[in-house]
Amino acid sequence: MNMRLVLIVLGVYWLVLIGSTINAYADPISISYREAVIKYVINNEGYENQVYTDTTGNKTVGIGHKLVGQKYKVGDYVSDELIYDWFIDDITIAIKCATKYHLSTNSNVNIVLTDMAFNLGCSGLRQFKLLRKHLNNGNYVMAVRAIKYSIYYNQITNRANRNIALINRRK
After folding, report:
1. In the sheet where 65-66 sits, what is the strand order?
2. Could you report the per-residue pLDDT of 117-147, keeping only the tens digit for each?
């Protein structure tokens, strides 16, 4: 991780710690869980101050923030402060979505589900009906297969493989 990304992770972490009311999974005050989710999602998303077009054609900036209905053009600069604000909102939504989808005693599963919710949105995560079924049954082998044999896997294979590896490193 380069130094700028480390500073951004720490900045976002402190903003979440001080100003956010994120309801973490098993422990709402778990700083270590929040920190792990933030680091994991930022590592998967990257960080960019200039507006760009993502792989699905959406204008995006910062830490995977889609600029739906906002008047930015590709190449426009966006401040770190605004990116932090958007990220706090986006990660809060992803955590709530993942929590409603499936609450696990396995923190790695919760991190993966939050990452998927961040990337796909709530409606996208809810499409993984077999994944939810297998997680509810504690069948991680089949849960991993539900990810591996999906359109999501084919679209973002490297990220999906990181998520699969994290599930396989059960805590």
Report:
1. 48-53, 59-62, 65-66
2. 999 999 999 999 999 999 999 999 999 999 9
